From TrEMBL:
A Pfam family: PaaA_PaaC
GO BP field: phenylacetate catabolic process
Species of the source: Streptomyces albidoflavus
GO CC, alphabetical: cytosol
PANTHER family in UniProt: 1,2-PHENYLACETYL-COA EPOXIDASE, SUBUNIT C, PHENYLACETIC ACID DEGRADATION PROTEIN PAA
Lineage top rank: taxon: Bacteria
Protein name: Phenylacetate-CoA oxygenase subunit PaaI
Lineage per the UniProt record: Bacteria, Bacillati, Actinomycetota, Actinomycetes, Kitasatosporales
Length: 286
């Protein structure tokens, strides 16, 4: 696209009032043209709550991955993490759009991303923990992607066709995310003494948060099968550890749940950074 055409596109988006902080200007509703009627027999409240929670997982996870920009061990890794983050942002956009349709508020993706405080988010707390070192980031990415992949594989048959389509689209993305993390965990665990030490520490730090993922039943009413997803997560976690020469402990689970609105002290500062420009210039378009 030429600079002239790009400028015209941006100007048109601003004039039409369609500017979006998260995704630029000139974009239509991500579910435009899709029949978004909630099918008979589907609990709209449960559907909206699930889409919001899964969208929050994706948005917060993407923001943490973005913190590796210019700071990753290698340029190739930096590009891979950026692309994984973009995959998650795409999932968040679709899930937030579905939430706004189903909950009756008509809110869009920017409303959910930029105009809620930390106590209104419903992501699992593992996603909001500080970035940590590369080993911890890979342990967290493995846990979140393995669990999310197991859920999405099941939600691809959800009774709501929109959620089913979103899940089906995300399956291939999440399979790559899981494989990327597993490959690096094995390389680090089977590498030098220092890399193995760090990878074990990353596993030990992320491990106690797996209980919160396993206990989340918010997707069950729509075909998510929490028990099955938890079993797959545990299998992937243990098989990857064995391949990497790591030890899996009997982790005591952290009490509480992000799905019920309980937060760590780390989410608010992350959101302050994420939301700062949009809140400093409300109503602006670019």
């Amino acid at each position: 696209m030429s600079d002239e055409h790009l400028s015209a596109s941006l100007a048109a988006g601003a004039e039409d009032g369609e500017g979006r902080w998260a995704f630029g200007t000139g974009f239509e509703d991500p579910l435009h043209g899709v029949d978004t009627t909630v099918p008979d027999g589907v609990d709209a409240g449960a559907l909206a709550a699930l889409c919001l929670a899964l969208g929050d997982d994706a948005l917060v996870g993407a923001q943490r991955l973005a913190q590796w920009t210019t700071d990753a061990p290698e340029l190739e890794i930096e590009l891979a993490l950026a692309n994984i983050g973009l995959d998650l942002l795409g999932q968040a956009r679709l899930l937030y759009a579905r939430t706004g349709q189903v909950d009756g508020t008509g809110r869009g993706e920017d409303d959910f991303a930029y105009w809620r405080d930390a106590d209104a988010f419903r992501n699992v707390r593992l996603a909001e923990l500080p970035r940590g070192d590369f080993a911890f980031s890979m342990a967290r990415l493995l846990a979140l992607s393995a669990w999310r992949l197991a859920l999405f594989q099941r939600l691809a048959a959800a009774p709501d066709p929109v959620l089913a389509a979103i899940a089906a689209k995300g399956v291939k993305e999440l399979a790559y995310h899981r494989q990327f993390a597993a490959d690096w965990i094995v390389r680090l665990g089977d590498g030098t003494e220092e890399s193995a030490r760090r990878m074990q520490a990353g596993y030990d730090e992320a491990g106690p948060w797996l209980g919160e993922l396993a206990a989340d039943t918010s997707a069950d009413a729509l075909g998510g099968d929490a028990a099955g997803a938890a079993a797959e997560l545990r299998q992937v976690w243990e098989e990857t550890a064995r391949a990497a020469g790591l030890t899996v402990g009997a982790y005591p689970a952290h009490p509480g749940a992000g799905r019920s609105g309980e937060r760590t002290e780390h989410l608010a500062p992350l959101l302050e950074e994420l939301q700062s420009v949009a809140r400093a210039h409300p109503g602006a378009a670019w």
